[in-house]
Every structure is written in structure tokens, then in C-alpha cells.
Specification:
- This protein is α/β, with parallel strands linked by helices and 153 residues long.
- Helices cover 29% and strands 27% of the residues.
- The protein has three helices and eight strands; from the N terminus they run αβββββαβαββ.
- The radius of gyration is 21 Å and the shape is elongated.
Length: 153
């Protein structure tokens, strides 16, 4: 009887270990849903834009769009969240435009036309320092799983 219980506990423990290892390896795929194909551009929504590339500190290119609004001194820096890519954010971009806010929207690594992998650390700040956006007041907007975060700088 003792041998049966011991072997049962061993099998259960091994099963839990295998399950934990599998879940650990799957966590990126459970949280992030990148889409490499751009389905639209701001031109499809009648918005003017510039295609931009921001170079990270490890020399990868992050793709984004800058949507200027004439006379705007504020820029919304928009990070779109864990799924899709920047081409899926047309409604938000139109709202910011109608509010008179210029917008800089960037795809994370592994999303849209951005290089790299979502498993790598992403730092956008270094690339922004090299551009002329520093003359503007930034409104940071982060869309995360079910929540929207905003910070005015």
C-alpha cells in the first residue's frame, strides 16, 4: 500500500512538473498576439501620416506612424496593447485627430513591420531622443489587457 501511494505521489508530482514547464514555455503565446500584416494605413482613414522607424539601442528598427495635426503642441504617444498591430487602431487615431492631437503610434518588437521578437526588452525612449518630438508635450497612452493608462508629461 505504501509503495502504491509513493508511486502515485511521484507520478502526480512529475505530471505537475511537466504541466508547469509547459505553461512557462507557453506564457508569451498566451499573453501576446502579434500580427505582422498591416491591414490599413492612416491614408485609408483620410489622415495624413509619416512612416517612421525608431532605432533601438541594439540597432533594431521599430516601425510606427506619426500623424501630425497642424498647430498641435501635444503628441499622443500611443502604445497599442498586446494584440494586433498599429493598423488595427484606426478608430483611436481618428479620435485623437478630431481632438486636435498629433499622434505617434509604434509597433512593439515582433508586431507589424517592427523587427525583433516580443521576447526581447523594448525601449523606445532612446529612439525618441534622436527625433524632433522633444519640442512637444507628450500624452502617453498605454493600452493593456482590458485597461487604458494615460500620463500627461
Amino acid at each position: 500500500m505504501k509503495l502504491f501511494m509513493l508511486s502515485s505521489l511521484l507520478v502526480a508530482g512529475l505530471g505537475l512538473l511537466i504541466l508547469n514547464v509547459w505553461l512557462y514555455r507557453q506564457q508569451v503565446g498566451m499573453l501576446f498576439y502579434p500580427d505582422k500584416d498591416l491591414e490599413a494605413t492612416p491614408a485609408d482613414w483620410n489622415l495624413s501620416y509619416e512612416d517612421i522607424a525608431i532605432t533601438t539601442s541594439d540597432n533594431l528598427k521599430l516601425h510606427g506612424w506619426y500623424l501630425p495635426v497642424a498647430g498641435s503642441k501635444q503628441v499622443v504617444l500611443f502604445f497599442h496593447g498586446n494584440g494586433g498591430n498599429i493598423s488595427h487602431r484606426g478608430d483611436s487615431l481618428k479620435i485623437f485627430h478630431h481632438l486636435g492631437l498629433s499622434t505617434l503610434i509604434i509597433d512593439y518588437r515582433g508586431y507589424g513591420k517592427s523587427e525583433g521578437s516580443i521576447r526581447e526588452y523594448t525601449s523606445v525612449a532612446a529612439g525618441l531622443n534622436s527625433r524632433a518630438y522633444h519640442r512637444c508635450r507628450f500624452v502617453f497612452l498605454f493600452a493593456a489587457i482590458g485597461r487604458l493608462y494615460m500620463q500627461v508629461n
